[in-house]
Amino acid sequence: MAVPKGAIIGGSVILLVAIVAAVGVIVIHKGPSTSNDSASHGELRAGSKSVEAICQATDYQDVCVSSLSKAANGTTDPRELVKLSFEVASDHIREAFAQSEVLSKAAADPRTKEALETCRELMTYAIDDIKTSFDQLGGFDMTNYAKAVDELKLWLSAAATYQETCLDGFENTTGDAAGGMRRALNASMSLTDNALAIVGQLGTLLGELKLPDVFARRLLSDVEVNDFPSWVGAERRRLLSLPPSMIQPDVVVAQDGSGDFSTINAALAVAPSKSAKSFVVYVKNGVYKEKVIVFRNMTNIILVGDGATTTKITGSLNFIDGVGTFKTATFGNPHG
């Protein structure tokens, strides 16, 4: 259902009010300045107060104030300050990414080298998720502000998890690469946590505004239907409610040659990129000994089998054999 234009405009105004409340300072110029120097000094001081105010909700206030002050360049625009909290976190992750590349070239231990390569991959995911958060902030939907805030927190939390997972990969490695990577990620992890805290503060303030029903109401599509979570769309709810025999697949996988492909990976290779429509893969009975690769651009993939005891997918990658835990999943991304 399309979001009413008035809801978007009204939502932007209310979001701005909440952000201003979070920042806690509005600068009003009553007349022309008598001195360019004094005006400049006043703007810098106002900008500093704005940064300090928005950082009050964070766990790492010193890091927050220091990083935002450098990036803000004296701005008092609350919307820009919130966006900048995302940007500085992303910038520091890029720095950690570069450091992981440097450390990887110097690493002699195979496990350490693999852990560093995994970190580089995870840093890419973290940057993507922070960018998604940044983009969603620009299109904040006030028809359901609680859901909008939750989605922002979800993407930022994923970015934080990727950074933690990077460090987990250094278990049983040799050398000082783990310490070097932890030092490289120290600032970015703090800044990601700070961005989460700022978004959480926005959610609290929006709740305290006691929005009218036009903004606070829950849309039908947001309500759990037949035990499916709200993010499962109507089409997928319908598909998942049907017995396998009634689902029309896009491709069929069968080891006996009766399908379109004999492996699941071959079937996924023809899936459309970033599709909004479900792509159904029917996997006939059999034991499929393969690591199934699901790329990040493979969206809305649905796998249907003949039952838990007849269609099986097995993997044989183990940490004990020298494979990092992140890469042992039977279902995973190209490197994990």
Automatic annotation (TrEMBL):
The chain crosses the membrane at residues 6-28. Its main location: secreted. CDD domains: PMEI-like_3. Gene3D superfamilies: Invertase/pectin methylesterase inhibitor family protein, Single-stranded right-handed beta-helix, Pectin lyase-like. Pathway: Glycan metabolism; pectin degradation; 2-dehydro-3-deoxy-D-gluconate from pectin: step 1/5. It is found in: Secreted, Cell wall. Keywords: Aspartyl esterase, Cell wall, Cell wall biogenesis/degradation, Hydrolase, Membrane, Secreted, Transmembrane, Transmembrane helix. Pfam families: Pectinesterase, PMEI. GO terms for molecular function: enzyme inhibitor activity; pectinesterase activity. It comes from the Eukaryota. Residues 46-198 form the Pectinesterase inhibitor domain. InterPro entries: Invertase/methylesterase_inhib (IPR035513), Pectin_lyas_fold (IPR012334), Pectin_lyase_fold/virulence (IPR011050), Pectinesterase_cat (IPR000070), Pectinesterase_inhib_dom (IPR006501), Pectinesterase_Tyr_AS (IPR018040). Its EC number is 3.1.1.11. It catalyses: [(1->4)-alpha-D-galacturonosyl methyl ester](n) + n H2O = [(1->4)-alpha-D-galacturonosyl](n) + n methanol + n H(+). GO terms for biological process: cell wall modification; pectin catabolic process. In the N-terminal section; belongs to the PMEI family. NCBIfam families: PME_inhib (TIGR01614). Acts in the modification of cell walls via demethylesterification of cell wall pectin. PANTHER family: PECTINESTERASE. This is Pectinesterase.
